[in-house]
Design goal:
The chain folds into 2 domains: 212 residues, Enolpyruvate transferase domain (UDP-n-acetylglucosamine1-carboxyvinyl-transferase, Chain); 210 residues, Enolpyruvate transferase domain (UDP-n-acetylglucosamine1-carboxyvinyl-transferase, Chain), CATH 3.65.10. The chain starts with a strand and ends with a helix. The mean pLDDT is 98. A hairpin with a 2-residue loop joins strand 12 and strand 13. The strands form 6 sheets. A 4-stranded mixed β-sheet has the order 2-15-17-16, with helices on one face. It has a 4-stranded mixed β-sheet with strand order 4-5-3-14. A 4-stranded mixed β-sheet has the order 6-7-9-8. Helix 10 runs parallel beside helix 11. It is α+β, with helices and mostly antiparallel strands and 435 residues long. The chain is built from 13 helices and 22 strands. Bound molecules: shikimate-3-phosphate. The site of shikimate-3-phosphate has 10 residues, from helix 5.
Length: 435
């Protein structure tokens, strides 16, 4: 099984461009396939998660042609042929791999189709809660069976149904749930409204607007009128701020380091990691770029010393995927960092409270675990260790970054999983270590 062998770095002077955003790539494949014509998607993320969604759309009758590929991974520039909201029954069950986003968004769209589909995933995805989407979709009239060994879990058998619009007050702050209900709402007659308990990433709403679909946002209430057909458009996917986060932490925590990250997505519902690192003392200069669509910019980081912080409850949904690497930053900072109200971490690709705490402790970090988070006492020197990714891409990459600051060699085992979100991570890591 592949692994990373990481040794400490003493200098860092680099410029990197991270691959396309995972959340936006899923949505571009789905909305492109539902649209009324050909859509060219540039800088698509050719990760396993997004390729599964792209292939799912092809299996549902929306094929794509590839213009450019990232060698060994897959398409980065492609045109998807929209089917004007008319999908066709797939010949076989659809594999969503490791992706909660893929499965939950596709389920929202498929709940309203006049044919039956089955969605399945790997062992991790088959243990993640699907009740959070089958409940609201069921209220809309969807008929979804959860066939997993674990109650309420995938595989999902989604039977043909006609859906009604609803107003849904989400119990958890989840962009995946919001997006599943909005996509289902697109196939109803009437207005579907979702009320979120806190602001979550708004890529679905923004992308619907790019496809000329009216979707109204009023604070944390989002409404969509059914019966609209997305108008074909081209879309360039910004760099993934969640992937940039690994290098932001590496550079911010290394005195003397200089790093420029180009064309990173800076959507305000995703950029809390930058604000939190700045609060910890990181020297990060943001240069926004004037482009249509999602906000992007360059980030320039100069390394220094970090100090502890407390994450605000309202920040949690904005940086939920970055918490493992923020925990690594906290271990390198002086003082005690407090991360609470983050119970959602327990239902990600792994239980990320458990897997982060285990690996931090293996490297000499001092951390207290809570049901909803952790407290990290920074400043204790990290030492090389063997860290298991537990099959979770963000755990693998976070502890590769920790290894850059640990004495001796750190081995991260079971690193195949990084391909679910960051093809080329190993190459970027090696380029920094070898300098
Ligand atoms: C995502 C939403 C988040 C995030 C995931 C991607 C999305 O999940 O953790 O990696 O693309 O909508 P939740 O919506 O379940 O919080």
């Amino acid at each position: 099984m592949p692994s990373f062998h990481v040794t400490p770095i003493t200098t860092l002077d680099a410029e990197l461009t991270v691959p396309g955003d995972k959340s936006m790539s899923h949505r571009a494949a789905i909305l492109g396939g539902l649209s009324d014509g050909p859509c060219t998607i540039r800088n698509f993320l050719p990760s396993e998660d997004c390729l599964n969604t792209l292939n799912a759309m092809a299996a549902l009758g929306a094929p794509h042609t590839v213009h450019e590929e990232l060698a060994d991974f897959g398409p980065v520039n492609l045109t998807i042929q929209g089917q004007s909201m008319h999908l066709s029954a797939p010949a076989a069950p659809i594999d969503c791999g490791n992706s909660g986003t893929g499965m939950r968004l596709l389920a929202g769209m498929l709940a309203a189709q006049p044919f039956t589909t089955e969605l399945f995933g790997d062992a991790s995805l088959s243990s993640r809660p699907m009740g959070r989407i089958t409940d609201p979709l069921g209220e809309m009239g969807a008929r979804i069976e959860t066939l997993g060994a674990n109650p309420g879990c995938a595989p999902l058998k989604i039977h043909a149904a006609t859906l009604q619009p609803i107003t849904y007050r989400m119990p958890v702050a989840s962009a995946q749930v919001k997006s599943a209900v909005l996509l289902a709402g697109l196939f109803t007659e009437g207005t579907t409204t979702v009320i979120q308990p806190a602001t979550t990433r708004d890529h679905t709403e923004r992308m619907l607007a790019s496809f000329q679909v009216d979707c109204l946002t009023d604070g944390n209430t989002i409404s969509i009128q059914g019966g609209q057909t997305p108008q074909a458009t081209d879309f360039t996917v910004p760099g993934d701020i969640s992937s940039a986060a690994f290098w932001l932490v590496a550079a911010a925590a290394l005195p003397g380091a200089r790093l420029t990250l180009r064309d990173v997505g800076l959507n305000p519902t995703r950029d809390a990691v930058v604000h939190v690192l700045k609060r910890m003392g990181a020297d990060i200069t943001i240069t926004p770029k004037d482009v249509p669509g999602e906000p992007i910019g360059d980030l320039e980081v100069r390394g220094g010393k970090l100090t502890a912080t407390t994450l605000e409850q309202s920040e949690i949904p904005n940086l939920i995927d970055e918490i493992p690497v923020i925990a690594v930053a906290a271990a390198l900072a002086s003082g005690t960092t407090v991360i609470r109200n983050a119970r959602e971490l327990r239902v990600k690709e792994t239980d990320r409270i458990d897997t982060t705490v285990k690996n931090l402790r293996a490297m000499g970090g001092v951390v207290e675990e809570f049901e909803d988070g952790m407290e990290i006492e920074g400043g204790h020197p990290l030492h090389g260790a063997t860290c298991n990714s537990f099959g979770d891409h963000r755990i693998a990459m976070s502890f590769a970054i920790a290894g850059l600051f640990a004495s001796g060699e750190t081995t991260i085992t079971n690193t195949d999983c990084v391909n679910t979100s960051y093809p080329g991570f190993a190459h970027h890591l090696a380029s920094l270590i070898s300098k």
